[in-house]
Structures
1.
Amino acid sequence: ELNKDQAKILALRWNDYGIALLGQSLYGQASEAFRKASEIFPEEENFLVNTAIAEIKTERFGPELSQLKKAKILLEKALFINSENKRAKFHLALINRSQGKTQEATEVLLQLAKDFPNDRELQRELGQSFYRIGKFDEAKRAFLEVNRVDPTNIVAFQFLTSLFAREGLLKESEIFQQKYLLWRD
């Protein structure tokens, strides 16, 4: 029987192992390692978030379509433990967006972007969400933020190309198109 400190240390080791597996794209095994960490030390919501991330990654590459549902349940459990966990909110917003709740996801991402204005992934996802709901000015601002933080981000270049062209700003559109072509390889 482990005391609380020993359990936390053992859980952290399983979590670290899961992170290493995740880095090697061994998503199923990473998910199991994170699950083990969560079983050993259930008070730590980030183990649930990490498990959800591994499940989401599995969804992208696996034939099964149930991982997003599993991930959503895990993220909701993490938010039950700590309703302010921003990683859980971020990933839950992405799942919600993938399930057609784009407006709801956009509102969550917008709130998170206020807390993390220099997070390029967050800004990129916010831009994509705005784009999906037809808020093109907001999408352009978000992608320009991505470009400010990461001046080589091809996703931002791709969207900015079309957003500027949409406004008839062909010179600016061409600049982003050239940057996209330069950096895509």
Note: The mean pLDDT is 94.
2.
Amino acid sequence: MSGVSEAAFESYITDSLTGGGGYQAVKVGNVGVEPRDFDPVSGIDTAELFAFIGATQGEEWEKVRKTHGSPEAAQQAFLDRLLKELAARGTVDVLRRGVVYAGVEKAEIALMYGRPASGLNPALAARFMANRLTVTRQLPYRPGSAETLDLGLFVNGIPVATAELKNPLTGQTVEHAKAQY
């Protein structure tokens, strides 16, 4: 790791996650023009969420889409349902069990595929490999604010962990991280 800055520490961590930790992409949450992938209102990386669903569950997603007039309306309605499920059941349960969406037809949308117990079933292995793991640097968490968290870890667009990094070599301590967090 070159340098002792917080940005260098972020780079080191994200390079490690993408280099050998199974993460496919590093995003930066506080740059670029609208629309951004991460929605600080919902806390979801909607680009990753709907890319995962579209790539793995086309038939189930079509059931959701048929209930709404446009793809955008279907995505917003599903996002609203997902947020309610996350609030009621928690992230781990929603990732493990998915979301049932009752529209014209009932759709069962998986939000993550677990690691298969063995490599004997190639279909299960392929589903597991379809998971989209991403890390976002400088993740905005308050709409209309420049405030960010240093790192956010996502599984298929759903946040599973955040981190506020500090470096004792620059005089920062865990107490600084707690205060900022």
Note: The mean pLDDT is 88.
3.
Amino acid sequence: TDKKVFLHVGHLKEDRNLSPLINLKKKFKDSEILVVGSTTTKTSSNIVNLLRVNGCTVLTGYQDQIEELYQLSDYYIFPTISEKAAIHMPLSILESLSCNIPVVTTNFGDIDNILDDTKLVRYFNNVDEFDSEYDLKEDDFNNNQLMIAKFDWKTIADQLKILFTELSKK
């Protein structure tokens, strides 16, 4: 409870650019870096060992209540750079925002086209640039739900209905 927790959830592969998490751990000595590996892809043992040797906590098995890992985190970190390493709007970022966790991310994929740079979403060319803690107040999180509301199933279904109606008229 006395440490800041940085969370990353996703594939534990070479192309995910996870090594900057080690620098983050060194920069914020009183922090905990928690990496939860996906069980749907092959894990790179080199990456897992590198992170663990440098003080990061890496969980590689299925997490039955992963929402609790999001909820205990102070920040979600997405260091990926390679366009081939993840989908262009990572669901883990939406999951973090829905749990009111600020996101620190590289300018990856389509994230910046979908989510504005705000107090709750910060973009960096490299996560090593992240050098100060957010000054967040309870009110800042009220906009989180508005920011991600466009991704709820009802909104998506309504948008598809409009799109299909327009297409059927052509």
Note: The mean pLDDT is 86.
